[in-house]
Amino acid sequence: MSNSHDEYSLKHMSSLMGSRRQRAVDDGERSLIGSPSRHSATGGDLLDQDAPTPVFVYVLAFFSALGGLLFGYDTGVVSGAMLLLKREMNLNALWQELLVSSTVGAAALSALGGGFLNGWLGRRICILVSSFVFSIGGIILSIAPDKVVLLVGRITVGLGIGIASMTVPVYIAEVSPPHLRGQLVTINSLFITGGQFIASVVDGAFSYLSHDGWRYMLGLSTVPAVLQFFGFLFLPESPRWLLQKGRSQEARQVLGQIRGNQSIDEEYDAIRTNIEEEEKEAGGGGFIILRILGHGPTRRALIVGCGLQMFQQLSGINTVMYYSATILQMAGVRDDKQAIWLAAATSATNFVFTLVGVWLVERVGRRKLTLGSLLGTGLSLTLLAVGFLLSAQNSPPITLHPVDLQNSTCRQYESCEFCMLDPNCGFCYRENGTGVYDSSCVPVTQTSTDHAAWGRCSNQTEATDSPIWAYNYCPTSYSWVVLMGLILYLAFFAPGMGPMPWTVNSEIYPLWARSTGNACSAGVNWIFNVLVSLTFLHVAEFLTYYGAFFMYAGLVVLGLLFVQGCLPETQGLQLEDIENLFTGQLCSCGGSSPNGNRHVHYIRVKGNNYLPSDNDASDVE
Length: 621
Ligand SMILES: O[C@H]1[C@H](O)[C@@H](O)[C@H](O)[C@@H](O)[C@H]1O
Hints:
Blueprint: H1 3-26, H2 55-76, H3 78-88, H4 93-121, H5 123-143, H6 147-175, H7 178-206, H8 213-219, H9 222-233, H10 239-244, H11 248-259, H12 265-282, H13 288-294, H14 296-314, H15 317-330, H16 336-364, H17 366-393, H18 416-421, E1 425-432, E2 435-443, E3 468-470, H19 479-493, H20 500-507, H21 511-566, E4 603-605, E5 608-610
Antiparallel strand pairs: 1-2, 1-3, 4-5
The structure holds 1,2,3,4,5,6-hexahydroxy-cyclohexane (INS).
């Protein structure tokens, strides 16, 4: 369909609608077809955009997004809790790794399984289940007597995160009016980064409580979980899911409740007709994932959705967040407590810039926001890499070679750079105004990375003349380049690549494929999250830090090409119309605009349903 043809049809239709609208207005009837906005002729104008949005939609979005808050809190809180836990429970590296990654691994599994639950039980029940699971997980964590019970608690919480991460965006998208959908779904991502920020503040506050502080850190998530559970006991199911299950009376009632005093007939008809059409098109029966893969538009939507989630994680967000404390140490922050509070500043930056995304998403659209974000993310990663490269090239030499009775690998290194890349060693040095002196590379203790196994750095004192122990980093005068890279990275990532993969995934699948599509893409997000965070230190060991960040920058360039070629704009479209954006070839999606895929459903005039083509607008497509 050519653009000029579209334009002709739309203009023509618009004038036809214009006279009809006039008649309707003359008749004192509120017409939903006639909004002269850019949404006219799509489902987007099935609701009057100028009418105030009922507060109820915001209440629904808030209670659902508590799932995002829990997702952010439980993934964020563990780093601070681990500092206390590893001392109190004497955890070795394997147990620390297990307690951190078991949650993300469990989230991957439950996100994949959540697709089935979502289709079967509905969005509301899934949100209730996830908040219940979160509450139980929080209670287990706060009373855990040993590390095994802690592991059970972390896995339980992960199961809740997985279900919430795939259900909440879908639920919000399904209850939102089209013109607010992007903003409301993005609020879920705001709650994720908000949860991460709250977690870092809680970590900071309870880090002073060295005995049992972790119980409060891990257990506090029970509060929002219980709030969400009780809230959702009183909140309705998604009208789209109800209609799909043939519960049309309930669907109509819920839609009416959500839309307040606006007329819902047109929206209701559009959803119903679409469900019928979809069922015919995609053919019933069989495994949904096979139907998705066998049907061109849904297969392409799935590729776009999973690709976005994969590139979100491949752009290294979680290593940047995780690595922020080390970056800050490089910048000269030596005190543990200060480092914890500065890490809170990092997550605050992520949160504040997600807010920018909420503001921008309905102004510039998903596509431009994602592209701009990727471009900035790539440039900031390059800056980070250059900062690490400069630090490596100017890495302080090792001047002292004490006799190493353990015969460790540490004695072979000539500069701090290689010493810090070896996980068994750390850099022990003194410094004065002009630089580093009296430096050595010595083994780290088995029990903690805070000290050397022996020698001058084995028992740290606060005395000003005592040597400094640097594990996993090197002192450098280029830390400001790295710090700038970090801040710019978050400022670019947070408004676009952070939230858009979740937002776009909640919109691009037709109803029959929505639960499964979101389950797969959320699963891909969690799987790549585990992969990237577990491999980071090994990648850094092989490629060095600058090599690792250059690699992420390269992956971002691939992401940029992918988004440029394949991500269509979904802004302002009725969910039911979005499938049409994927009818062309995969990598021509970028060329489709909402205007190029107008799809007219029903227009109700004075209570009658008819298709425009049945009447005077027969040349309208
Ligand atoms: O969208 C979120 C957000 O950007 C978080 O900061 C990040 O930790 C998650 O992995 C991601 O999925």
